[in-house]
Structures are given as structure tokens and as C-alpha cells.
Write a structure and sequence with these properties.
Length: 444
């Protein structure tokens, strides 16, 4: 399927919204409207009015939102004032198939109309089928298992508890966990302990103990840190929040050798890099190693919240037993149906090959732009550095020009668009970028 056909497939749904609820009746027997319309519930308001209401009703943990978005189709979104944007961030690597993908939304609606939620005293066909599919796609060996959560940080939290259960032979305590400088693993307490950024950590100290951060990409430092007191090493194959920094060649293999020798778990955080983001199901799959666990989320549900911990082999999978971890909503029928639908499209419409092609085209184009000093990443997870501290101003200029991008650092721009981004849409951004850089510099 061509680049343009992928986009048209995703944008096939009417911008007026999704399928309605047909044939249902309210508490008094009155029929419910055949077409659900969100504006009937929230009203029509300008962006400025919505933002005023936001500041008076929501906690300020995200600061002031940049825009109020009301609808999307494929790689495009529109705000409350009708302005169109090319979404080059994809909900931070979440909207793998763009917005309002017709197949995914139809599967979600059908499943929700059939069975929306069951407690974890029960299971569902979609939960089992998704677990089997993930074990297949991640090439997990016999005896591997899956735990479903609702987000990436929850998947990492489960992995953190898994690491705590790795006590080694004769239950000798393993009190240390190793992560990397620059790491971002989430904001719940265990995941935050693994996250390196002091500004995130300091307000919530003391964090769960025993976590140490070693220099990024330094194999000798990692080897020196890993001994028989280490329960686990947590690694992102590409550090997204640090500016899209891939681990150097050979690092994952060295980490596997060191952890195996010490009896430590090697846990890969592929929350951002997994599910086709780099043009592979896992960014780590070419390293020639078998980890002990992998965390997934973001693109897995195509925009619907779901996370997963995949444990490799029977020994690691036995570390957490009944009652030692759980979740109310994790693995619910709707979330797992959404993930199955997303994986089906990715697999059957050759999206991963498309990601590799468009990603290479976009990175090559970025490298030719004056003011861009370095381009990093794989597939459609891309970071590029600038020759001045103007990245936040580029984000602002981009919004004014109709582009959504992200600045994880003062000189770095991150792109994580829907995996269906077309070559034409990539070229549209490349053509606009020189003017965006100039506008950003002029405003400094």
C-alpha cells in the first residue's frame, strides 16, 4: 500500500465523528440518540474560553495547554477555533495509526457495545488473543507471559516489582537496580525512581531505594556496576525524553552478557520505541539478544490506553505470583480489542516498511536544513539538534504555521508522528522548517 493510500485509509472516517449508539434506551425507556455527538454534551466554545475553564478546573501539572483540540483524521487535527495542524508528535508516539482510524474505531465501538469491562476474576477472548499475539510479535520463548496495564508507567511499575522479586540463588538479597543517566521511565514512584531527571525526582524524595544511574552509553561503567547484588538493569533502546538518543552499537549485547553473568534481569523499556515506531516491532530486535522482560504501551492501543509487561521464559514469568500485582482496568475487553485492531492494521498493511521508508526520507531531509546540526533516531522516532537554544520557540512557531512538534531540550526537536505519515506530509514540514527556524531566532 502506498504512502498516500495509507493516509487515505486512516482518514476515511467522516470528520463529524464516530458511529453512534443504535437501539439503546435510557432509564425511562426513552430512546437514546442514534448518533452520539460530543458537542451536545460539552457545548461549542472558543479555544480561549476553554483554556480559561481549564485553568479553573484542572490541576496545573501540565502547565497551560498549547491548544484545545477537538477532532482529528489521520495525521491531521483541528482545534476549537477551526485551525488545522499536521500532527508530527502523535500524542507522543501514541497515535500509531493517526486519529479516528476507521477500522480501530469500529472495533472499539463494536466491543464496547458487546462487553466493555469485566473484573480480573474473569478474562475475555480479546485479552487472551492479544497476549498470544504479543508473545508472537516479540519472539518470546516458550513459557513467556504477559501482564496488561493501562499505561507505560504502570507497565514499568510492574517491571519494577518483578525486579524486586529477583532474589537470586538461595534467596540471597539483590538490593540494587541499575538505570541510565538521561533515562525516563515514568512518574509513579517506582518508575520515577528509575527516571534520572532530578527536577522530576526531587519534589517526591525519598523514592524507592536501591536505584543507581550510570553514564549513558558507557559499557565499561555498566559492567563495573553490575554484580551479584544487582536485581535488574533497565534500559531504553532509544532515550526519547533525553532527545532521541539511541544506545551505541553493542551496548545491549554487553548489557545482556553482564546481567546474565550476575544473575540480574535485563528489562527493556520499549514503551516509546515499540510497536513499529522504529520500523520494527521492537527497537531492540536487531541486537541479537533475548531480554528478561519488555515494557510496552503508547502505540499499542492506537490511541486507546493500554500497557503491557512481557516476561520472557518460565523462570522470569514465575517471579510474580497470584496476589502480588494487579489492576482493575488493565487488559479490559475494549483496550485489548483496540490493540488487536491496531496490530492487525500495522501487520496487514505493511506499515512497518512504510515507517522505515518515510523515516529515512525525513531524516535525510532534516540533515540538509541550515541550522540543523545533528539528526538521530530510527524509523519515525526522530530527534534533531539546532545551532541555537531556540527549540521551544520553534514549537511555538510551528503551531502558528500548523505543525505540532516537541522540544525535549533547548536545542532539540522531537518528532514521533503517526506511523502513516506520508512522504508528501513529511516534505511539507521540511519545506516549512527553514522559515520556522528563522522565526524562532527572530523572536529570541
Amino acid at each position: 500500500m502506498s504512502s498516500t493510500e495509507l493516509s487515505r485509509s486512516a482518514e476515511g472516517r467522516s470528520s463529524d465523528g464516530g458511529p453512534g449508539v443504535v437501539g439503546h434506551r435510557g432509564a425511562g425507556g426513552a430512546p437514546i440518540a442514534a448518533e452520539a455527538d460530543a458537542t451536545a454534551l460539552v457545548g461549542q466554545t472558543t479555544g480561549a474560553q476553554w483554556l480559561s475553564r481549564y485553568s479553573s478546573s484542572l490541576l496545573g501539572v501540565f502547565g497551560t495547554p498549547q491548544r484545545v483540540l477537538v477532532r482529528g483524521a489521520g495525521c491531521l487535527v483541528w482545534d476549537a477555533d477551526g485551525k488545522e495542524y499536521l500532527d508530527l508528535l502523535g500524542g507522543i508516539a501514541v497515535n500509531a495509526l493517526g486519529h479516528a482510524h476507521p477500522f480501530v474505531t469500529s472495533v472499539i465501538a463494536s466491543q464496547l457495545a458487546t462487553l466493555g469491562h469485566v473484573s480480573n476474576f474473569f478474562t475475555s477472548p480479546t485479552q487472551i488473543a492479544l497476549a498470544e499475539k504479543l508473545l508472537d510479535l516479540t519472539r518470546a520463548p516458550a513459557g513467556s507471559k504477559v501482564f496488561f496495564a493501562n499505561s507505560g508507567t504502570e507497565a514499568v511499575e510492574a517491571a519494577f516489582k518483578l525486579a524486586r522479586r529477583n532474589t537470586g540463588p538461595e534467596h540471597k538479597p539483590k538490593t540494587r537496580i541499575i538505570a541510565l543517566e538521561g533515562a525516563f521511565h515514568g512518574r509513579t514512584m517506582g518508575a520515577l525512581a528509575l527516571t534520572a531527571k532530578e527536577a522530576y525526582r526531587a519534589p517526591f524524595a525519598p523514592l524507592p531505594g536501591g536505584v543507581e544511574h550510570v553514564p549513558f552509553g558507557d559499557i565499561d561503567a555498566l559492567r563495573a556496576a553490575v554484580d551479584d547484588t544487582v536485581a535488574a538493569v533497565f534500559l531504553e533502546p532509544i532515550q526519547g525524553e533525553a532527545g532521541v538518543r539511541p544506545l551505541p552499537a553493542g551496548y545491549l549485547r554487553a548489557a545482556r552478557e553482564a546481567t546474565t553473568a550476575a544473575g540480574a534481569l535485563l528489562i527493556l523499556d520499549e514503551v516509546q520505541t515499540g510497536i513499529g515506531r522504529t520500523g520494527k516491532w521492537l527497537a531492540s530486535e536487531d541486537a541479537g539478544i533475548v531480554p528478561d522482560a519488555v515494557t510496552l504501551a503508547k502505540g499499542l492501543g492506537g490511541g486507546f490506553p493500554i500497557g503491557a509487561l512481557v516476561t520472557y521464559g518460565p523462570d522470569t514469568s514465575a517471579l510474580l505470583s497470584a496476589g502480588q500485582h494487579g489492576t482493575t482496568f488493565g487488559g479490559n475487553p475494549v483496550a485489548t480489542a483496540a490493540a488487536l485492531a491496531t496490530l492487525h492494521v500495522l501487520e496487514n498493511q505493511q506499515v512497518l516498511a512504510h515507517v522505515r521508508d518515510v523515516g529515512e526520507h525525513l531524516r535525510a531531509g532534516l540533515a540538509t536544513v541550515d541550522g540543523v546540526t545533528e539528526v538521530r533516531g530510527d524509523g519515525l522516532l526522530i530527534g534533531f539538534d539546532l545551532d541555537a537554544d531556540v527549540a521551544p520557540a520553534v514549537v511555538t512557531a510551528g503551531l502558528e504555521a500548523g505543525f505540532i512538534v516537541n522540544s525535549p531540550g533547548p536545542r532539540t526537536i522531537r518528532l514521533a508522528p503517526p506511523l502513516i505519515l506520508t512522504t508528501e506530509q513529511a516534505d511539507r514540514f521540511l519545506a516549512a522548517l527553514p522559515a520556522l527556524l528563522q522565526t524562532a531566532k527572530d523572536t529570541q
